[in-house]
Design brief:
This protein is mainly α. The chain has one domain: Cytochrome c-like domain (Cytochrome Bc1 Complex, Chain D, domain 2, Orthogonal Bundle). It has five helices and no strands. Bound molecules: heme C.
Length: about 110
């Protein structure tokens, strides 16, 4: 094997271990505006207490929650309806968008 082949093999191995696709923040923001903002707000910090705050939440937590609503592992009729049509890429984009918003902390009691 030549040095070039070794380098090429190492490179393709590196790419193979990368996640399928990087999140697209602009697409995440567009989707959030189109679908989610009505309840969660654009920054994920809805003032209505029945809508959980998404702003600044961990990206992997948000993505898992959306995958679970989509699969039915997490049951909520409202979120199931909104998560069902999301693609894997939509989920990554939305999770990245909301994870990058400011976290708002309020005291409940
Ligand atoms: C009609 C209002 C509504 C819309 C629109 C909506 N959601 Fe939700 N969302 C809710 C409610 C209510 C819950 C709480 C459900 C539960 O108890 O599991 C929730 C929960 C969530 C959670 C879980 C939060 C946590 O802390 O575990 C995530 C993530 C989420 N929504 C993301 C989204 C995204 C992304 C969209 C757009 C694709 C969206 N939601 C659209 C009402 C909505």
């Amino acid at each position: 094997m030549t040095k070039t082949t070794i380098a090429a093999a190492a490179l393709s191995l590196a790419f193979a271990t990368l996640p399928a696709a990087a999140a697209d923040l602009a697409a995440g923001a567009a989707k959030a505006k189109e679908v989610c903002a009505a309840c969660h707000g654009m920054d994920g910090n809805a003032s209505q207490p029945e809508y959980p705050r998404l702003g600044g939440q961990h990206e992997d937590y948000l993505a898992k929650a959306l995958r679970d609503y989509k699969s039915g592992a997490r049951k909520n009729p409202v979120m199931a309806a909104f998560a069902k049509p999301l693609s894997k890429q939509d989920i990554e984009n939305l999770a990245a968008h909301y994870a990058r918003q400011a976290r708002v902390v309020t005291a409940k009691y």
